[in-house]
């Protein structure tokens, strides 16, 4: 696999094991008295951290504020990072602890910036999250499938599981979207506000896990967060009657604790979700059946529509047999017919295009 930027310039913040881009450097002598916690919010260099041992703080909440120790360097620490802190962990108003270590990340959601000065560079967004909840309204604003595809690509690349939540189903029929995304084997849930429909199923899917909410402005993310986390008080905005667009009414990225355990992280203000840093191999990892077939591809195969001798075409033209999938792939939907295989390959290729496109501007 090609060398890749890990999205952090701190060699001690080793992102995702086994992807082999940077050698592990010598660890500093451990701070034996350090306490572990999760970054829940970042505000101008102040990191809000929920300690694992909540009883350490005076109020028992486990919430402290910390600054990064100089020895941590410039590497970016993001919401969801597991960090170690030393010093004042009383959580008393105005007290500051010192963040001295960032633990290895299990998953990392990133985006490539697409405009402005840093165009083409990647930014880490959230670390260690399990689920990427892609929130899409079936109407007002109209769904934008290319945008959904980008979120899915970002989730697969991050090693996160995508969950598609279709909102505002009181306004339109979700079936066309459900049909489009079925071949990818996604979990899909529908919600509608009146009367509070579908939130229970979302709550269940998120229970005990760390989830990131992503979606275009106005699709109902804040409404969903408010339903999931009583008292979250996320501001909800009106959708402009003329453009059908919302405006991002909420402003900060923060982890909110779910009543039944687990965390939900809204991503307001993350408008574009560039995926130009994603490679075909990153995506294939999320499609074990296709990955197995692609082992027969010629070296350097793009796997795109029309790619010469791409083994995905051969795979899609064959009727599956009972032993078509290796045992490790039991969770993916087993295409029962060649037609279903074709749909699956077609869906995979559709995801592949936006990411590759950005790498090669000559490809249309
Ligand atoms: N009809 C209908 N309207 C909804 C539903 N869910 C949310 N809305 C409305 O859609 C509008 C936008 O909802 P928000 O929750 O503010 O959307 P958002 O995604 O958080 O938007 P930003 O904060 O701009 O990112 C509000 O007027 C909500 O009342 C739904 O299920 N059905
Ligand atoms: Zn191929």
TrEMBL record:
Name of encoding gene: rsgA
Oligomer and partners: Monomer. Associates with 30S ribosomal subunit, binds 16S rRNA.
UniProt-annotated stretches for the region Disordered: 1-32
Chief localization: cytoplasm
Job description of the protein: One of several proteins that assist in the late maturation steps of the functional core of the 30S ribosomal subunit. Helps release RbfA from mature subunits. May play a role in the assembly of ribosomal proteins into the subunit. Circularly permuted GTPase that catalyzes slow GTP hydrolysis, GTPase activity is stimulated by the 30S ribosomal subunit.
Listed name of the protein: Small ribosomal subunit biogenesis GTPase RsgA
Pfam families attached to this UniProt entry: RsgA_GTPase
Start-end of Basic and acidic residues biased regions: 1-13
